[in-house]
Fold:
Amino acid sequence: MGVVRLPFFVYGTLRPGEQNHDFYLRGRTESEEPALMRGLVLYDGPGYPYAVEEPGGVVTGEIVTARPETYDELLRALDRLEDYTPGDPRNLYERVEREVARTDGTLVRAWVYVAAPTIAARLRARGRLIESGDWRTAG
Structure:
């Protein structure tokens, strides 16, 4: 049994106009639309952000829906980009299923890469919070 084919919520280098968007997403997506995910805050990587689960937080990004024929390939590519292997304690990120809000307020389930627990604890203790929740405005 394969992974549930959910869209992806992207909030950093995979957003349109950012460094990894063209390399990983160009030609592989059916749609990309602005969205907000509640229950997350952003920390500066540096060079890329980490989303950390935090009640009351809101992160700005996009919902990316993969073309069906490219889904499996894209999922593997994004897991590699995010250094994510299911169940590996050395992961920098974990891929989790969460609700994301479209601009019209409708909610959809999506995959999102969040900081793995050890990384999240370190960021909460010493990280640089991106208070706007939008990596593009973090300057």
